[in-house]
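Reopening this one. Same input as before:
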Amino acid sequence: MILNSIETLLRNGERSEILGALSAALNRSDEAPFWRQKSLPFCEAILSVLIPLREQNLLFDPEGNSQPELSPALFIRWCDLLSLKTLAFTLAQSNFEEKLIRTKLSLERCSTYTPIDLEILGTYLSGYTVNLNDEWVDFPITNYNLHIGMTSLITKILEGKC
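Same output, byte for byte:
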């Protein structure tokens, strides 16, 4: 029931509705409070950019391939910290150029892109020492490892195993 609800919300719901469903699922999980507290802001940061891309019909995966909908599988793909960092730089450059770049979507579709507010994502990433000025500067491996733990929890929830 929860899985179907979250899956439907990812396809059509507002960010607040999705976060509410994820929060409820996290609270019902048997995970330590540490993981639950870290995971919700992580989800919010991801949704802050995926929902606008969904609304513009411009969803793509980390390899730049067009995606028809915001599914649990696509959400999980963007949970990788390196992928999320790359997405932030892609959208920042897309905002500057006023067209979606670095994807395999058609030029016609990319030209329909409207700039996305990156404040929530940027604040989140900078909190984990992700350099937002130089894409090629690495972040601490401990932060990457922490995100692997959060991704594991989110994956269990989205797959209905939690």
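So the earlier flakiness isn't reproducible anymore. For the record, Helices lie at 2-12, 15-28, 33-55, 72-77, 81-97, 107-110, 119-127, 141-158.
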